[in-house]
Amino acid sequence: PRVAVLISGRGSNLGALIAAARDPAYPAELALVLSNRADAAGLERAREAGIPTAVVESRPFGRDRAGFEAAMGERLAGAGIDLIALAGFLRVLTEGFVTAWSGQMLNIHPSLLPAFPGLDTHARAIAAGVRLHGCTVHFVTPGVDEGPIIAQAAVPVLPGDDEDALAARVLAQEHRLYPAALAWAASGLARLEGGRVAIGAPM
Ligand code: GRF
Description:
Layout: E1 2-7, H1 12-21, E2 29-35, H2 42-48, E3 53-55, H3 65-78, E4 83-86, H4 95-100, E5 105-109, H5 121-128, E6 132-139, E7 149-156, H6 163-187, E8 190-193, E9 196-199
Parallel strand pairs: 1-2, 1-4, 2-3, 4-5
Antiparallel strand pairs: 5-6, 6-7, 8-9
The structure holds 5-O-phosphono-beta-D-ribofuranosylamine.
């Protein structure tokens, strides 16, 4: 399948996906990197890797989320995209867009969902005193950070951790987890079936 990676910023997860997809045996092709911000650093990573990029600025659309998504949809259709990987994409998508891509859109979230949906996950994990934290790749459904879970990786929260130290430990796991989970989805090994994730070869 042809994958579009949607970003808003740094793009370190994009970098991990690019590195994994260099293997000819990787089951997905990164066919487009789309950003809602022209200044996203991740765009440069894509250009260096020779992956087509698109910028659809969300700001001019203001509250017109459907208009923004229609503009994105045109670029995705133009690139023949089958699968979307959200990677630090900081716009909430409408139910219409999410439903249109049901089972074909993944997100990575920096916590062990269902704990700590939303923002500031590392600070919240430290404040809550949890001993395990991590990251989750899930199919995207209309509820933010609520979609069925494909894969997770856990890390310890260590005494003396601050937000940055914990974030770095989680991020290293994100960079291992996302390429693996995307490969499962792209190869059909992980599928959304009846609102749950089925893992394994299709029957
Ligand atoms: C990551 O922590 C990811 O889990 C979250 O946003 C961050 C994006 O980082 N959704 P990067 O742009 O991939 O470096």
